[in-house]
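task queued by scheduler; priority normal; single chain, no ligands, no partner chains; default sampling; output format set to structure tokens
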Amino acid sequence: MFKVIQKSVGPASLSLLTFKVYASPKKDSPNKNSIRVDELSLYSVPEGQSKYVEEPRTQLEEKISQLRHYCEPYTSWCQEKYFYTKPKMQSIVQWGVDNYEYLQNAPPGFFPRLGVIGFAGLVGLLFARGSKIKKLVYPPGFMGFAASVYYPQQAISFAQASGEILYDWGLRGYIVVEDLWRNFQKPGNVKNPPGNK
């Protein structure tokens, strides 16, 4: 066994030795086998002439091309509308997510208050039978009254802001009516009846 190990260790240890080999061409031999650098390239481009030939379009490709040209204005319009409405939709989705998280962690007593306010809206619908104006006024009025009972500070600030807005609208309406009345009262604007000439 010792002989086998000795024979296998000997050649293996020689492979670990490094040494340099210096070779020099003979001065008297002619250099017949010299190769240029471009001949050594493995990725040289062949020298053949290539020509691009377009294949004829099939009837299916023609129809698809016509369909794409026909639909192009509509698709561009849809893309414009999509990019226009995308931020609004994202804000609506974010509002919904925020409300969902608020309802998941609602303060105590929120849902009973919400139920009373909703019930007040239903009572307003019952009292508003028969008239369209009553249907527009009673449910929001009853719900506003119920909400103001539970949230008085917010109701006061809402009433102040909406009061200022209503006053501004009323003032604008008054100015418009006054201008129309003045234009109507001018003597040149009154037309004679058809019987009097």
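post-processing summary
- Residues 59-104 form the longest helix (46 residues).
- The mean pLDDT is 80.
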